[in-house]
Amino acid sequence: MSDRVKVRLTDSTYVELVRGILSTVFLTVIAGAAFALVGAAAVLDSRDPALFLLWGGGLAMLVLRIVVLAAYRKHRTGPLAPRIAGRIERHFAWSYLGFAAVFGAFMARAFVLGSGDIRLLVVGMVFGHGAGVAAGAVLRPWIGLPAVLLGVVPTVIAAFFVEDHRLWGVGALTLVYAGGGMATMLRRYGATARQISLETIFSRVSARDEQTGLANQIALVERFEELSSVRRSDLNIALHVIQLDGFRELNEHYGYIVGDELLKVASRRLGHLAPPGGLAVRLGGVSFALVQAGLDSPDEADAFAAEVHQALSQPLNVSGEDVHVNVSIGYSFGPQEGAHLATVLDDACRARDRARLSGSGIARSRPTDSAAKRRLARSR
């Protein structure tokens, strides 16, 4: 691949490129209908058993491709892990390249054996195959480029072996168009990959709080959706809402510049406390959240809340001076699968308010939390 189209893919860009091939069901159905009709005409015209077998094999590969696309249709939107994206890509490639190989062999044989009308249909199908690949597999060139070669080159070679020399021009023209189409595919892939990369960068920027550098509520929504979509009924999730109390008095005593710096210092400490697979978020003002996922028992959430409270209760060094802040933490614990952020966040905020009013520092959501509500709904 030339430097002009060489793209360094991040995981998020790769996922979006793979996701693009899941939108090719309509193209696959159109290609299948065209291949079935033209193939039937070629088989009836030649009465060749080998051509009939190739026709049946091509239809089987098309059905397999539709099955693959249908099986992974749910991943067209929502979270998609790079590992799953790789599996989708491989399964799609097997059916896609398998059809291209059978298609190329069928069209070449039909071109050699067929009448003038059949050859005209074959040339149209070969050009249509190239256009279909350019539209459906352009975002994965390692699939698209071989698919063009497998589908087009056999007919080009066949054109040079027929007795009618006028058909050599058809073969040469087809080869030229195929080469131009492949070059266009590479350029389009490079441009699209760069665009997706930029969009990903911009989305990450918008998902960050400008003042503290922590994730914001946009990132919280995205991460929570990703975690709650994991199909594991044995895993639990905890959302800890943290409030730094007394900031108004601190601002009045030290000034707003020191107050802003104190907010940044506290945010950095929270960022270091975020567990693996979790997230540290600024909800706004002096309110923050920590996501803790993949838990086995509420004891893990209890211990983590105590750890966070102890860490933030330690003096925060601002401009060489140690400053103490009061910390109130409320958290909600429940099943990770299918968890709803709005409900869980509301439960955790209520628990935080109880912790602040009671002076206990830490409080867990009561049995009216989201997990209990889901258990009640299932029992009805």
Shape verdict: elongated
The radius of gyration over CA amounts to: 30 Å
- Biggest β-sheet description: 5 strands, mixed
Distance between the termini: 59 Å
**Ranges with pLDDT <50 over ≥5 residues?**
1-7, 368-380
Helical/strand content category: alpha+beta
Average pLDDT across residues? 80
Structure summary, number of beta strands: 7
Tally of helical segments: 13
Element order, helices and strands? HHHHHHHHEHHEEHEEEHEH
Helix-residue proportion: 55-70%
Spatial sequence of strands, sheet with the most strands? 2-3-1-6-7
Strand content: 5-15%
What this model shows, in words?
The protein is an alpha+beta fold. It is 66% helix and 12% strand. It contains 13 helices and seven strands. Strands 2-3-1-6-7 form a five-stranded mixed sheet, sandwiched between helices. Strands 4-5 form a two-stranded antiparallel sheet. Helix 1 (11-20) crosses helix 7 (166-206), helix 2 packs antiparallel against helix 3 and helix 6 (141-159) runs antiparallel to helix 7 (166-206). Residues 1-7 and 368-380 have low confidence and may be disordered.
